Amino acid sequence: MAHTTPPATRQAPPVRVHLTTPPLDSAARQARFGYGDPCPGHEGLAGPGTGEWAGRTLEEVAAEDPRGVRSWLTDPEYAPPGGGESVAALIARTGAHLAALPPGPHHAVVAQAVVRAAVVWALELPAAAFWRLDVRPETETVLSGRAGRWNLLVGQPVRGD
Question: In what order do the strands lie in the sheet with 139-146?
Answer without folding.
Answer: 104-109, 15-20, 139-146, 149-157
